[in-house]
Amino acid sequence: MKEDIFLKIIDDPYFSVLVKEKHVGSGVSRSYFYSIVRELRKLKVLEENALAFKVIVPYKFDNNCIRIISDKLLFLSNQHIGFTMILDEKPACFDCRLMTECVYGLKIVSKELRIKRDSTLPHSSWIQMVAEIANRIRNNSSDAQIIINNN
């Protein structure tokens, strides 16, 4: 998914709509809720009001090539959004207040996608993990669908 669209859907109000089944509690009006639902369906993120992905990694065009961005990820676990991740450019793992959640997320992704981790630093492990997901998409070794939208 294009990076700008990825950033849009992991932020409110899109993310609120993504995690709610009904407009109640989403923080948006009913009509705006269903407008966002229609847009998420067009993006193939929702299908029949259910989440329609396992992993979303953003990309951007760079010199007429698609470059997958390795510091962002949206992951689905047990039909619920497991987590969203945007890494800082400079790793500060040992000072990060989200270290526990970060390591837990790493364990979930590596287990569910059967990706071996080589690094002990979470930041490096995430970069490695997204790179492996990108390799699988490129090699078509998993049920991956590359959606290139012109929005």
Automatic annotation (TrEMBL):
Superkingdom of origin: Archaea
Protein name in UniProt: Uncharacterized protein
